[in-house]
Amino acid sequence: MSGADFGQISTVPLVIFLVISGIIGMFPEGFLIIMPFMAIRKFGGGYHAKHAYICMIMSTGLLAGCLYAVSHFSVSRLIPLFLLVSGISIAINSPIDHENKRLTEQEKMRYQRTTIVLVLAACFVSVVMNVMGYNRYSSCVALGVILTGVLQLPVIIRKIMR
Predict the structure, then answer these.
(1) Cα end-to-end span (Å), the chain
(2) What whole-number distance in Å separates Cα of residue 101 and Cα of residue 43?
(3) Would you place residue 71 in the very low, low, confident or very high pLDDT band (cuts 50, 70, 90)?
(4) Gap between the Cα atoms of 74 and 51, Å rounded
(5) What's the whole-model pTM score?
(6) Which of 26, 89, 88, 98 shows the shortest CA–CA distance to 63?
(7) What is the average per-residue pLDDT within 46-72?
(8) CB 29 within 8 A of CB 71
(9) Of the candidates 84, 101, 87, which has an alpha carbon nearest to the alpha carbon of residue 152?
(10) Containing H/E element for 122?
(11) Cβ–Cβ < 8 Å for 152, 90
């Protein structure tokens, strides 16, 4: 897969999701979910589907599920707990190497540091928004981190089972 192909694969769900978010009047929420998700996932890694179209459908579907949750459910008191658990898991397990793109030891160290900084920044933004009373927006940022952690689980479980 060329760099251009990868760029299209990662950009298409982003554009579709942001367009849908805008159409339903939830662009800020969509933006706040997808930004930490894409930034952390880029350096932290996680589950990858074998085919690009499956990846695009899954990514768009999972992000849409997060948007649905934000719009239809009250902010759960469990979100900070899930954010904490996901943040710790991401920090410990990142980067997750992919068989199609092996990382050198130096890249692994750099990616892990970058991932930790991004997770801490997202957690900080989420907490500040919560303290300021922007609970819905705080939950969106948290869901971006949580979704990244969830997408690392299949790879972590597979690694443990070996």
Answers:
(1) 28
(2) 12
(3) confident
(4) 35
(5) 0.86
(6) 26
(7) 80
(8) yes
(9) 87
(10) helix 105-131
(11) yes
Average pLDDT over every residue of 47-67: 79
**Cα distance between residue 55 and residue 24, in whole Å:** 23
Looking at residue 75, the DSSP 8-state letter turns out to be P
The token pair that represents 24 in the structure block: 């339903």
Q: How many residues does the chain have?
A: 162
Would you say residue 6 has pLDDT above 60? no
Q: Which amino acid is at 82?
A: F
| Tokens 């706040």 -> residue | 32
How many Å separate Cα 86 from the centre of its chain?
A: 10
The DSSP letter of residue 78 is T
DSSP β-bridge partners for residue 101? 98
**Which two tokens mark 127?**
């907490």
